[in-house]
Design a protein that fits this description.
With 341 residues, this protein is mainly α. It contains 14 helices and 4 strands.
Length: 341
């Protein structure tokens, strides 16, 4: 061992003895007990406390860890059992790849949380994490080594960190319904999603441009007439496209009626509707007003038509007078005489 190793060894012994000083002016006295008081170096330390810097303490700690790992220091070296689970180089590389990909995806998810841009921003990273997890799970190289690698990383302990992380990413992706925004095995955004996001950006741009003229006046008086008038058509186009995407999604997922559009599209439409109706207080005239009024009037007049038709088409029964036979014969005789005269 070189001089540096000897120095580290002495620092480790000093760190384990009482009466150590951490930095200038920070001295922790010994408790006064124990067999170390009879040892000359320990007594010497009591009389003249040793001052160690933080760097020296850290080096001493690293040295102690290296001892525990079995890295020898002469005759005092420790050794651990050789049957401890150790990862193969290939397996450790797979684990590091998964760790790096998971960190990148986690950062992307958090950055895209508000406003929601999960699916459009993070789908390449999600595919990357899925690929890294597949590499760990499936056979890589020698079958026995691959089996051991998957077992060590996925099933060797109760917590199973790798599995938990993978399940978290998958659950988040499914909850966001990102598959409804993607195509080609979730490798790119669908055409309808791209068109919707472009129209959404144009709508926000229209809102912004019509507020820039006199923004202070608008905010004080809450008068957004220009926004409602100039952006009505593009807002209607966006709303119409969103409805069409909903219908297409319902037709595509008939078996699962609860399936919704991806969270990016839903959040964008919610933001636009809140701005249009709550912030700007705009109203969009309904194009079906005339048919609705006509149907309503027809329904209201149905009872009148019914009773009127019943009155006109009902048969009125006439009363018929039935005369007795005596009166009937006398009447016939009188009638005969009148005719004869």
């Amino acid at each position: 061992m070189g001089s540096r190793g000897g120095l580290l060894w002495r620092q480790l012994l000093i760190a384990l003895l009482p009466g150590i000083c951490l930095g200038q002016g920070h001295f922790f006295p010994a408790d006064g007990g124990g067999g170390l008081d009879s040892v000359t170096p320990a007594l010497e330390l009591r009389r003249h406390p040793v001052v160690l810097s933080e760097q020296q303490v850290l080096e001493a700690q690293d040295l102690s860890l290296s001892l525990l790992r079995g890295q020898g220091l002469g005759p005092l070296s420790l050794s651990l059992p050789s049957d401890l689970p150790e990862l193969e180089p290939e397996c450790r590389e797979l684990l590091l790849d998964f760790a790096n990909s998971s960190a990148e995806l986690t950062g992307c998810l958090v950055r895209s949380a508000r406003p929601v841009r999960l699916c459009q921003s993070c789908f390449p990273l999600f595919q990357q994490v899925t690929s890294k997890m597949d590499n760990i799970s499936r056979a890589v190289g020698n079958m026995s080594e691959s089996h051991n690698c998957a077992k060590n990383l996925l099933m060797s302990d109760r917590v199973q960190i790798v599995v938990i992380l993978s399940e978290f990413f998958n659950a988040t992706w499914q909850e966001a319904n990102c598959a409804n925004c993607l195509t080609n095995n979730s490798e790119e955004l669908s055409n309808s999603t791209i068109k919707f996001l472009e129209l959404f950006n144009h709508t926000l741009t229209c809102f912004e441009h019509n507020l820039q003229g006199d923004l202070t006046n608008f905010l004080q008086q809450k008068n957004y007439t220009e926004v409602c008038k100039n952006c009505q058509e593009i807002y209607k186009s966006l709303s119409r496209l969103y409805s069409e995407m909903q219908k297409m999604n319902d037709l595509k997922n008939k078996a699962d009626s609860g399936t919704q559009l991806c969270i990016d599209v839903e959040d964008a439409m919610n933001i636009t509707r809140k701005l249009w109706s709550r912030t700007f207080n705009c109203t969009m005239p309904c194009s079906d007003t005339v048919p609705v009024i006509a149907v309503s009037v027809f329904i209201l007049f149905l009872p009148v038509v019914f009773y009127l038709s019943s009155f006109l088409h009902s048969e009125q029964k006439k009363r018929k007078l039935i005369l007795p036979k005596r009166l009937k014969s006398s009447t016939s005789f009188v009638t005969f005489q009148e005719n004869s005269n």
